[in-house]
Amino acid sequence: MTDRHDAARAALEAALAATAQANPDSEANPDSEANPYDVARQIVLRQLALSPKSRKQLRDKLRQRNCPDDVAEAVLGRMTEVGLVDDEAYAGMLVRSQQAGRGLAKRALARELRTKGVDDEIARVTLDAIDPDHERVQAERLVAKRLRSMHGLDATVQVRRLAGMLARKGYPADLSMQVIREAVAQAPEHQRD
């Protein structure tokens, strides 16, 4: 975790505690005459306490909770000013975690960012920072790991299954086929005696 993320998390927790202390019964009785800005702020802080979210995800949650659009935009604007809502940081975190955890390539990452509501320009800048060599190394790791469980299958079956796996993870076909052919050719079971 970065110092910036830790500082934002601490600010979020402090804001959530202060809001809860100021309006202890607003969540328990949503029909009370609570300030709509306070209610929206509480919703956003609670959502951010659960996990990082994009501005669009938070806006959608506020709409789902029948928050007026002008109130939602004002609260989200203020949260952006203080650094609690930051789509650039969110996009970077999402890309890093999806690359490391699921081994996704640029195309699949772009789809994830779009699904989460990250602006196209922010997504493009974030994805442009990905090193193509890292993507190749990641594809090689995925293929090597999966190939170990395919021992004894015909080479064409292995190639087909590996190509499908990499395609689902967003790897380009030309890179996938290069990596797969090299790995299958080097597999001990396909070596000529």
Descriptive overview:
With 193 residues, the protein is an all-alpha fold. It has 3 domains: 3-81, no CATH class; 87-128, Arc Repressor Mutant, subunit A (Orthogonal Bundle), CATH 1.10.10; 132-190. It is 72% helix and 0% strand. It has helices at residues 3-22, 36-50, 55-64, 69-81, 87-102, 106-115, 120-128, 132-148, 155-168, 173-186. Helix 1 crosses helix 2 (36-50), helix 3 packs antiparallel against helix 4 (69-81) and helix 5 packs across helix 7 (120-128). It is elongated, with a radius of gyration of 23 Å. The termini are far apart.
Which key features would you list for this structure?
single chain; 193 residues; mainly alpha; Arc Repressor Mutant, subunit A; 10 helices; 72% helix
Total tally of structural domains = 3
How do the helices and strands follow one another from N- to C-terminus?
HHHHHHHHHH
Mean of pLDDT: 86
Individual helix count: 10
Unreliable spans: 22-32
Rg over C-alpha atoms, rounded to the nearest angstrom: 23 Å
User: What's the story with the biggest beta sheet?
Assistant: none
Shape: elongated
Quote the beta fraction.
under 5%
Helical content class: over 70%
SS-based class: mainly alpha
* Cα separation of the termini: 50 Å
Tally of extended strands?
A: 0
Give the gist of this structure.
About 70% of the residues lie in helices and about 0% in strands. It is mainly alpha-helical.
